[in-house]
Amino acid sequence: MKKALLAGSLTMLALLVFMFTQGASAANEEYPVICIKVTTTPLVGMSEVFFGFHSNATLGYDSLYDSPAPPPPFEGIDAYFYNRYGGPTGVEDRLRRSIYPILSDANWTLYIVYYSNKGSTVTLHWNMTAAQLWLGDLKLLVFLAGDELIEEIDMKQQGNYSFNVPRDSYGEKYQFIVKYHCEVDRTPPEIYKVRPKDTIDVATPVIKAFYRDPSGINTSSVRLYLDGVNISEIHVTESFVSYKPSEPLQLGVHTVKIVVEDLHGNRAEKTWKFKVVTKPKVEVLHEAKVADLRLCSVEAYTQVEVNIEHPSPTFPVVNLTVMPGSSFKVGWFNVTVHRHVAELPPVAERKVYLYLEVSHNISVESASLCFRVNSSWLEQNNLPPENIVLLRFNGEKWIPQETTLLRAGDSCYIYEAILTEFSYLAIAGKPEVVDTTPPTLAAQAVVKYLG
User: Fold this and answer.
1) pLDDT bucket at 79, cuts 50 / 70 / 90
2) Which of 235, 295, 363, 368 sits CB 3.0–4.6 Å from 326 for a disulfide?
3) pTM beyond cutoff 0.90
């Protein structure tokens, strides 16, 4: 059914072009007709329409259901028309052209039919992937009315092609310019940071890799292998993949491999090793707990409260008041409380009370995070309550966040910090430095000049 609809649409477009051609021919050479044909093969015809034939296919290209064709021109190409005598073409000139694709099982053709009493410039620009180049030569063919071929150009380059069209029998001509530019994305994604690295003393580390690509990441392509085993229980986003083993790893060297592709099919992979030297007891105060927001449809800039409770507190360890940056119907926050995180650098000159690992799948404008610190821990570490601060790890170093002491509880102090980004967080304090330097006596020297 879809094939019939598409074929009918193309037939209607072909009739429209035929009307343009006939109208121009009857205009006594006042409006010369130009047909610009961009194709992966010069042999595509109207009868070769096999694109989107599967009953479950959509109107666009579907890799699962459609024949192996490159991205169709109406999704990956822009055609711009400009009046040679200044400025973009007006409404009248826009009505004097038609752009439509012809698609086959392995090729596509774009037809641009244009007639005008002025010279014009046509700019063609689109992206192709390296994987699509095998599908055929990309050619630009320019026709006059009557199918007179003017030129055939290799479009896998870029440049300008100029040709003149006779205006009338007196020899006057119009100039048409075709500018063509094809960009081929051959660059794989960049895998720019992995962890853990080197030697660690944590038996259940968070294994994580960060990646990026200007064209975007195909998240369904991400694969993570641990010691040759394809891990299915991974958390994948457009910027990183992570996995935390549910059971302690064996002592010794472990090998991790990540595979990722961008939206153009370019593939990157990276392999690294780390070594587990001990099997300490995993000191996680609170297992990762999802604050499920599926039951509420949240509008942008509407506050949402997320509570993560300690197993036996008198006050929640974490209370988040989130201001989403965009509306959503389904959302989640993952907050894990750690005693230590071996793969992170130490927090310089500070005593760390707890580490928090926060991840989410919604856009966050800002968030207020409340937390408590036990009074006994402050006393043991010689920490004044006002010296407590929340720090955020930005991938390179720990950055202090705006932190306020709200009040003192029965056995703890309550703090609030304002955040606009989440990652690893650390609740830490800076001990007071007791000055043991002996006092110095001030001395005054009097100098007299003898005359």
Assistant:
1) very low
2) 363
3) no
